[in-house]
Amino acid sequence: MTPMDTKATTTALLVIDIQNDFIPGGQLAVPGGDEIVPLVNRLGRSFLNVVCAQDWHPAGHASFASSHEGKHPFDLIQLPYGEQKLWPEHCVQDTQGAALHPDLDLPHAQLIIRKGCNPAIDSYSAFMEADRLTQTGLTGYFKERGIDTVYMVGLALDFCVMYSALDARMVGFNAIVVLDACRGIDIDGSMDAAMRRMQEAGVRLIQSNDITSG
Ligand code: VGL
Ligand code: ZN
Q1: Where would I find the Isochorismatase-like domain in this sequence (predicted)?
Q2: Among residues of the chain, what percentage have pLDDT more than 90?
């Protein structure tokens, strides 16, 4: 395997949604979510460019089951932009649950991009919201910075990491997901589906020990 130049100015590490609510004990816990933090910190140090994504919903967000009478977490409903899976209330703006994990140690991160801020629209992807129209601005940021290669780590592999990776490919970036620095929710076969969709889209799926800084 050729060395990967993680220190290149054209490469970034995107650290996705490593927030208290996605950690065991949180409102939408991803099994083993806390286990990746030391590895993410270590990987972070080998990248020049680090960006974090943060799920950041207003109270009463459309993706919360509690916002829809008679609905329960993990139900599917129809919203104007299409099908939406409903979740427990999570990552409400400015709450402890929405804060990045306290052990995340990425002092050189240059940008924290917040998503899911529109009360009516969810956004798994760090690039584009679920209406498939509203941009978060991250594509523009990477393009203006001359970044063409995006490594991704974080939570949840089968939701926010997958959709971010698919969108990264869609706008033409090289997209690499570091699997052992991710954990998934895995409901209704979501993990198998995510692996297949990422492979089909040309996302490279690697392990952290495949990265030898160039
Ligand atoms: C996520 C469900 C709802 C994630 C965010 O970060 O994967 N999943 N909001
Ligand atoms: Zn969310």
Answers
A1: 11-209
A2: 96
